[in-house]
Amino acid sequence: MKIGMLGLGTVGGGVAKILASPSGRSPLLSKVELVRVGVRDITKTRKVDLSPEILTSELEKIVTDPEIDLVVEVMGGLEPARTLILKAIEHGKHIVTANKSLIAAYGSEIFALARDRGVCIAFEAAVGGGIPIIQSLQQSLGANKLKAITGIVNGTTNYILSQMTEGGATFDDALQEAMQKGFAEANPTADIEGIDASEKLAILTLVAFGLEVDCKTIFRKGISSISQRDIAYAKAMNYTIKLLANVNLDEDGSLRLNVQPHLVENAHPLAAINGVFNAIFLEGEPVGQLMLYGQGAGEGATASAVVSDILNIVGSSAAWQVIHKNLPARASVSQESKSHFYLRLLTDKSATAAGAIAWSLGDFNVAPMSVQQQITKDGALEIAIITESVFRSTLDNAISSIRGLPYVKEVANVMPILKI
Questions:
Q1: How many CB atoms are located within 10 Å of the residue 44 CB?
Q2: How many domains does the chain contain in total?
Q3: Do 42 and 171 fall into the same domain?
């Protein structure tokens, strides 16, 4: 099988290295030949050693070349990646992509055209780096009725929260360290505000449940509001704060999706996932619970996933047409979710403040399980509350009422709790 590749950055270079050194790897690699690589600047010095004749800046020629059987897209971004991939499909070429934004935004369009042309689309590297989550959902777990997926799918935010938890760093200091080490982009907004995780959650939902979700409909909250006060309260109550992407399928077929920080009970496997690592926790019937864990990004992990897709297409194309045999339906997304919640509030110093707030929560049938309070350096009273399980909409109504109390200065943070 002859391969053309769009892009030769970190991931593309890793893919080229694997294809150039098949010894000790799958014997299927002997059937793969990288014949053309599209780059913006063919004169640029690169870490990977490729014959100059392979490189071209004319990307469209790759996707229309009749000798090329499969196109690997590792250039990123929405355009020209979308246009090039659609043109490659029109010319009967299989596609392997690591582009999560593209699949999240234009998956239906790409899958529909691929179905019509009888070609395969593979995108293992779009979620979880080297974790084989897409293949697991499509193949190994195909006998199961999946109920829920909960994951740490963004290494940048997990690194920041780990540094805050283990090293006592502030959010700003941890973010700067992540940027210095190359774990965060110069503009980290997509990571820290949960946009990246939302795109990955939409892809997981598509693969696991065959339902298409508009990323804009996913409830999303990032980690920029997390402070060392929240970290301290979480530790004291035997929790760890993690940014989680969640999807639950209700019995009526509706989905509940969210991306937001959670207090994760320390007994839960996800609480122990630190640094830039990712992990995805699944619940299904009859398999029960299981978790996949590994490096969520980087040259080696992502290139591994890309080449794995190539080999799966080389070995058995039929398995990779499952996702677009029947085009996904648009999902009905519910914003309602029920959980225990953590609240941190700042009030005027008052002996009766905590009791009055608990009373106000009770007006909305929100029952506190535990209440902690202490005086801050600024002389305010800080109150941390863990609630009984309650619908988020009910809690939001209670919080709106609390904000109107004269002695409440700020509702500093609200996070759901994940228990084992």
A1: 9
A2: 3
A3: no
Each residue's pLDDT, cut to its tens digit, for the chain (420 residues) gives: 999 999 999 899 999 999 988 888 888 888 899 999 999 988 888 888 888 889 999 999 999 999 999 999 999 999 999 999 999 999 999 999 999 999 999 988 999 899 899 899 999 999 998 899 999 998 889 889 999 999 999 999 999 999 999 999 999 999 999 999 888 888 999 999 999 999 999 999 999 988 888 888 899 999 999 999 999 999 999 999 999 999 998 877 778 999 999 999 999 999 999 999 999 999 999 999 999 999 888 888 899 999 999 998 988 654 444 444 455 566 667 667 789 999 999 998 877 788 888 888 999 999 999 889 899 888 889 999 999 999 999 999 999 999 988 889 999 999 999 988
Identify whether residues 364 and 379 lie together within a single domain. Answer: yes
Domain for residue 301, yes or no?
Answer: no
Q: Is the Cα dihedral 311, 317, 323, 324 positive or negative? A: positive
What SS3 class is residue 220?
Answer: strand
Contact 85, 95 (CB under 8 A): yes
Q: Are residues 177 and 281 in the same domain?
A: yes
Same domain, 117 and 257: no
Residue 332 resides in a domain? no
Evaluate whether residue 139 is within a structural domain: yes
**Of residues 332, 330, 104, the one with CA closest to residue 212:** 330
pTM of the complete model: 0.89
CB 47 within 8 A of CB 71: no
Residues 214, 168 share a domain: yes
Q: Report which residue type is found at 355.
A: G
Catalytic residue flag (residue 200): yes
Distance, CA of 99 to CA of 109 (rounded, Å)? 15
Query: Are 30 and 49 found together in one domain?
Result: yes
Of 99, 126, 153, which marks where a domain is finished?
126
Cα–Cα distance, 411 to 67 (Å, whole number): 62
For residues 143 and 284, give the distance between their C-alpha atoms in angstroms, rounded to a whole number.
9
Q: Is residue 300 part of a domain?
A: no
Q: Are residues 171 and 79 in the same domain?
A: no
Q: Is the dihedral of CA 115, 321, 105, 16 positive or negative?
A: negative
Please indicate, yes or no, whether residues 98 and 204 belong to a single structural domain of this protein. no
Which is the catalytic residue, given 44, 200, 349, 419?
200
Q: Which domain holds residue 276?
A: 133-295
Torsion over CA: 81, 87, 89, 92 (sign):
negative
